[in-house]
Design a protein that fits this description.
Layout: E1 7-8, E2 12-16, E3 21-27, E4 33-42, E5 45-53, E6 57-60, E7 68-73, E8 77-82, E9 91-99, E10 103-116, E11 120-126, E12 132-142, E13 146-151, E14 160-165, E15 171-180, E16 187-193, E17 196-202, H1 204-248, H2 256-266, H3 274-286, H4 300-327, H5 334-337, H6 342-350, H7 364-380
Helix pairs in contact: 4-6
Amino acid sequence: MALEEPIQSDTIIVAALAGEANIYCNFSLSMDVLQVTWQKRNGTSFQNMATYSSIHGQRLIGSFQKKVHFTRATPKASAITLQNLTLEDDSYYRCIFSVFRHGSFSKDIRLNIQTISELTVEFHSLLPAEGLLTAVCSATGKPAPNITWLDDRGLEETPQIHHIQNTNRTVTVTSRLNFSASHLHALFCLLDHPQGRQKKALHLEKGREDVQKNTVIITSILAAVLLVLVLIYCVMRLNNSRRNKQQTHPGAPRTPAEETGLHQDLGERPSLSLKDQRITYENEKQTPGSPLHKKPKRNLGLRKRWRHLFSEEGENLNNSFQSELKSGPDGLSIKELGCSPMKEGREAMAGEGVQVTPQPSCSPAQQRKERHQESTGAHGMVSSPH
């Protein structure tokens, strides 16, 4: 036996966000109903919310204990109320009547949650063209709101409308209008939505003041940036000029006193005699902190050994020289030959670290040559007899 429409209920139920929604189902057949079950679709399946039976009575399941309550509970008529609605409650709901010997009968009801935000109107930006303003009117709702513009003389510009789909299934609508404020005295933004209508006016005088403030701010910022650039340029020019002057005139002018002192410092110092040099050397050597004041080194024995060798060699040369002088026929003195004895050179060399050049000593061959020249000159001066 075919049964048609055994359950009467609303197909679509519209409710506002944060409000309440009443859902009901009536079973019209004269059959014994054992239990009524309410479910909510969650994705591709349905989830039990509440049940009623003559034996067990009312029962709320899980998290729906705070969301759902029965407003009517009988075997053939059942009604529930969903409270504190959110956008997550926007779904399909199903009522099921379990009938003895005939199975179950069900019906799906669509719950549509609608919402609309407050309408906002503001002057959004300043266009580069002089005398033009930009007004922006926006709202967010489900379903998408409808926004229009009204003024006292009509608008020649066509507004630009943008839609943004949000993740919570709401839509944000923004209407942007460019207009000239010179011939407008009043401008209104209208919003149409199933949850109500809204209307707001734009205060053009305030918009002009905002535009003027923005213009002053932008002009001040540009002037400050320009001033900073000019200062930086001046500092760079000053540094470059100083650097060029330093390269062109590397030395600062000196006073006459400084020039005189400089010439005195660069002048030749008087030469010191051998005795003065030795005295100066001894003083510096005995002065603590002087470069010549050094601690005795380990090679002191080696230095003494070299001095001994040089002393022996000097004595041998001096002895040979003295013997040559004594054996000479003419008996020339040392001073006449222009040679100094090696003993004096040896004494000069005995000074520690003093580089004194001794008078040149004559070798035996040179001494003989000088004696021969002297004797030849002496005999040549004698006149030969006529």
